[in-house]
Amino acid sequence: MEKVYQKSSKDVLKHYETSEEGLKQEAIADRQKKYGLNELEQSEKRSALEILWHNINNIIVYLLGAAVILSLFMGEWVEAAAVFAALLIAVLTGFFVELKAQGSVESLQKMIFTTTKVIRDGETQEIDSKDLVPGDIIVLEEGDAISADGRLITSSNFAVIESALTGESEPVDKDAQEIFEEEQSIGDRLNMVFSGTAVARGNAKAVVTGTGMKTEVGQISSLIDKKTAKDSPLEKELHKLGKVLIVLALVAAILVIVVGLINGQDMAHILHIAIILAIAAIPEALPAVSTITLSRGMRIMSEHKALVKSLSAVETLGSTTVIASDKTGTLTENQMTVERIRLAENRKLEVSGRGYDPIGDLTENGDKVSVTLTEILNGGQDDDALGQFIIHGLLASNAQLRLADDQSDDSDRKEYQIIGDPTEGSLVVLAAKNDLDYTTLSENGWKRLAEIPFSSEHKYMAVLAETPYGKRIVVKGAPDVLITNFIPKHKQDYWLDQNESLASEGMRVLAVASLKVDEKTDLAETFENNFDQFMGDFVIDGLAGIMDPPRDDVKDSVAETQNAGIAVKMITGDHPKTASVIAEQIGIKNHENTMTGQEIDKLVDQAGFAQKVRETAVFARVSPENKLQIVKSLQAEGNVVAMTGDGVNDAPALNGADIGVAMGIRGTEVAKETAAMILTDDKFSTIVSAVEIGRNIFANIKKYVMFLFSCNMIEILAVLLTIIFSLPMPLQALHILYLNLVIDIAPAMSLAFEEADEDIMSQPPRRASGGLVNKAFLARIIISGAIIALASFIIFRHAYAREASLEYAQTATFTFMALAQLLQIFNVRNPKGFGLNASFFKNKVLVLSLILSLGLQMAAIYLPFMNAILGTHPLTGATWGYMAIGLLVTTVFVYLANTLLRRYLKED
């Protein structure tokens, strides 16, 4: 069948072999078998084995495995057991952390049980929404969630909130009588309803035309790439680092073999040394430290209301260069709010307050004003233009203000919701800010007698009301309609100018007008059946400038984000003018540069599209495909893109971005299913906190990677020097493993607890070339490693030359290396200076880890059973004396070398 919105409701009923009486019960089972359940396909959850394999499939883990095999081959059972223990810690830590994260997300994403009213066998009944089938007749009323796509067959004052699907923040008026000859976009199909939306007002019936994956929501869901997630910047860096490790281990082993053969050493001895060097080249603690650092970041983000699905996603935000954010519900409250009031005599008022929260002030020329019933009743209604406007707006609104679900009267921070039309709700909230509601009006003499519902044809609604000052007709609706049809012509220009002024600010404008009417017996009948006779004599009470306001935290968060060198781009289905005004209010740079979905469709395959996307700050009236095209264009230019959103229409872009961020409270299930991170408080500021946490995580990862690699470099170069000078091994294999797995691991892990630099959010994002492995990083590792390795070699040669035993010289070298590596922490933890400052004592974990490592090294030297295992000897005071001098000189030289490197080598 052709597109159903191009057909009459009668034709659609015929096509689906149904009627307004609904389907016969016996037809339901066949249709469910044919069409399936009314559910979206869920992406497959990773099994426990897949998560385990993800943690095993790591080049460093492979190298650790190779080290285990080599140690077993050489008969070094203790060495093999130690390395295997490190391997297990690395793999299982990541496994359990990711398994727990997936469990948390699954519990958050459980589908809420929903029901739908349908007509079957001529009777209205309530069924589980998943049991809907094409041909069902659904009954829709104010506040209902719509669970399937359908063609309207009847409608009365019917409007639907479609923001989750289209990004439009305003309700869309629907009409069952509409038939379209030409193709229409989703937002313009006014005779259709769609799954995932909600009824704002009125009532209707519709024949179901699409369920499950055949709905518009399902079609958008099918755009989502369900392939394996992309590697994060950190994972890419660790892969690169793994390759460097392999090369380093091979080069070291080859050098040992070549030098050994030249010096005529035994091949078995040479191979043993080569294996020791290969083990020394592998930072066995790196996988465990990386996992613990990222899992700690995951926990911190969770405490900051950001639920992360995988360890790698924790770091990705820290590398973000662009945040592409949905507007409605992410940057804004998704709560229509009166912000401006225009009255006669050029009176202009501002209204403060947060969304539907009935707390706020009215100010005029900077002075606070208020409305009370006592003043109105004492002075006469006509003497209070502001009170008249607010009360009449309330009288002509059907929306209801309530505490949100699961809220109680004694909650610390109350959350409110509007049942009904959000635009009408803004007038109800305005009244509530002045302690006015329907009950209060009714108790004081205001009462609605009759109503003419809003219609998209007339663009107004009217009520006949009893007031303390007699009967009145109140009309609320589109300003151009009320101004040109309801008031005398000589008063129109003023109000048209006021309307244009508010509209130019990107606001939706509502007009409220009233008319005092005579007390005649047939007034109600005349009102309902001959309303036109009243038109022309009304008075405009005022205009309301209504907007979905920015969230409280957004402006400061956007400023902080842009100050951090991260571009913020708004992507919305809303009107370009409205979007641009919001962008200006929250401080997005270049907010005046806008681009529509139609323009994207024309330019996407042309040269210059990427530049246009780069320069544009606000994308409006865009489709889900457009959002994904924008994200891909930004990524093609080397950007790391974070996409935020809450609607079904955001899902493809959330999936395509480097990290998708979904709103946990207002977000749709499709959005939360797709995203890599879920904000449990829906705040944009939480993203900024996550960026800061991610940046600090990368900075700390860089610190401990530099620490571990410089320690490995010390061991490798010290061994090579002794081989070159034909000396015995300065260390035993167990000494290297003890250094790598016992001495170094606690201080390395403690670097994960380093606080962020004060200026971390004033720095630009790291460039694509600014990863872990770059020339500055390698220079610092090689030079610091070489200095300490040379000092270690001197210590060994001095101890061995004094005719001490080889084991004693090895113990001295082993101890010197351990202490030099612990002191290396201070040259690593502060990349801009020496790290022994006040901030050192703030990291209590680091202080304790250094004490622990020092104690473990002393145990290795002075405990007899450790002497037996490690082949160590207690050291004399004289040895401690010259080692202390060597440690002081070495640490100073490393600090001076780093200072020179910072001056001459710009670290990427």
From TrEMBL:
The keyword Nucleotidyltransferase does not apply. It is found in: Membrane. The chain crosses the membrane at residues 55-74, 80-101, 244-264, 270-294, 704-727, 733-756, 777-796, 808-826, 846-865, 877-897. The keyword Secreted does not apply. Residues 3-76 form the Cation-transporting P-type ATPase N-terminal domain. It is a multi-pass membrane protein. It comes from the Bacteria. InterPro entries: ATPase_P-typ_cation-transptr_C (IPR006068), ATPase_P-typ_cation-transptr_N (IPR004014), ATPase_P-typ_cyto_dom_N (IPR023299), ATPase_P-typ_P_site (IPR018303), ATPase_P-typ_TM_dom_sf (IPR023298), ATPase_P-typ_transduc_dom_A_sf (IPR008250), ATPase_P-type_domA (IPR059000), HAD-like_sf (IPR036412). Its main location: membrane. It comes from Streptococcus moroccensis. This is Ca2+-transporting ATPase. Pfam families: Cation_ATPase, Cation_ATPase_C, Cation_ATPase_N, E1-E2_ATPase.
